[in-house]
Amino acid sequence: MSAKDVIIALDFPTREETLSFLDQFPAGEKPFVKIGMELFYAEGPQVVRDIKARGHKIFLDLKLHDIPNTVKRAMAVLSRLDVDMVNLHAAGTSEMMRAALEGLTRPDGTRPLLIAVTQLTSTDAAALKNELLIDTPMAETVLSYAKNAAASGLDGVVCSPLEAALVKERCGADFLTVTPGIRFADSAAGDQKRIMTPEKAGKSGCDYIVVGRPITQAEDPVAAYRRAVKDFWG
Ligand SMILES: O=C(O)c1cc(=O)[nH]c(=O)n1[C@@H]1O[C@H](COP(=O)(O)O)[C@@H](O)[C@H]1O
């Protein structure tokens, strides 16, 4: 899969709202999309199949985090869905990540990309230190999780765009950085703490930017998507 793309987070509560959002795009324009917990829990795997059948690449964002055996078996189930990317929490440890990779690999040897969430983009330095009790600075923490993910055979990490360059430098150019926390200069940050514009993200080593509300809540979502693509490519 060629890296560098804009992924739209389809954070909608129903299939109807999701499809009417996608229907705003012209027939030939098929953005890479992310299906997360809200839509998946509401509609189940069929909505994944339906959106795939419409020609979209899909990042299935369920952020698995459990004991290795449970994650392995859940990944084996997810591998039957024809998605392009899935994720888990690196905090589940290297043993869990290796088990996930095993479970995700289909009998024919193929599998979706497997990406590890490092530290959520809604976590700031104070929460890292005071609530998670991690004394290591954010960038070093993210890098350490990224190294564990790389050593476990994963394809990349979810991190904020602020850490993407460091991860690429230390884990290799082919190790993917998938970065939410994307905001236009005139967007509300909301609950996101570690943020960057699409333009700066494009210059900071991000392979994929994940953009939700700045596109889905825009007055003209198609124009907002195209603006993100244009700014990201620079
Ligand atoms: O794994 C993710 O996709 C993810 C990880 C992370 O650290 N931060 C983060 O925001 N996300 C997801 O990325 C999307 C960002 O949405 P907006 O904040 O609306 O742009 C949401 O669907 C989040 O669930």
Automatic annotation (TrEMBL):
Gene name, per UniProt, is pyrF
Say if the entry is tagged with keyword Ion transport.
no
What Pfam families does the annotation carry?
A: OMPdecase
Among HAMAP family, the record links this protein to: OMPdecase_type1_B (MF_01200_B)
A single Gene Ontology CC annotation of this entry is:
cytosol
Q: What is its EC number?
A: 4.1.1.23
Q: What is this protein called?
A: Orotidine 5'-phosphate decarboxylase
Annotated NCBIfam families: PRK00230.1, pyrF
Species in which this protein is naturally found: Dysosmobacter welbionis
